[in-house]
Amino acid sequence: MKIAVLVSGRGSNLKALIEQQTQNDYEIALVISNKANAGGLRIAEQHKILTHYIDWSDGNAAEKKAACLLAQTDIELVVLAGFMKILSPSFIETINTPIINIHPSLLPAYPGLNTHQRVLNAGDTRHGASVHVVNDQLDAGCLIAQTIVEVYSDDNVDTLSQRVLQKEHKLLAHVVGLLATGVLTCTQSQVLLNQQPLTQPLLIT
Ligand code: GRF
Question: Same domain for 13 and 59?
Fold first, then answer.
């Protein structure tokens, strides 16, 4: 399965996807960023993956360009991995491939930004990350899989975010692998596991 990864920053999830692609039946054929200096673009270049920086100051024009690139590259799945732009409903409708996102919280808890700080402020003892289908609402599409991390009493944002990130790397590659082999299939409104509706997110340890 040919996938595209959209990034805005350092790209550690992209790197994890690259490292796990051969054993997981997917090929990262395209990396797009809205930031010319994104670490993720450099990582992709080092691995000789086709990269494109798109100026996102005009969202409509940027999405048109992105849609063209996805079609030209025969992309079958789009993965948002630290992509900090909200995609419009019309883009999501038109590109005709599933879009998934990785988010650093146990959704539906803590959509949006600063999840680690919010978890610490709330005194939660459990945190984690989620992979979900992208729809027209922020971090609110169907959940596909989650990973759980224990919060320690001496955690700060750095220690907690690092621990979650390590788990994200495994979670995302695992989910993309399941989509690539057809074990999981998804549309904008539902996720199927072995052709049956997924009733709760998969738990990846
Ligand atoms: C990750 O924590 C991801 O869950 C969130 O943005 C961060 C991206 O990190 N959406 P990286 O660029 O993959 O290192």
Answer: yes
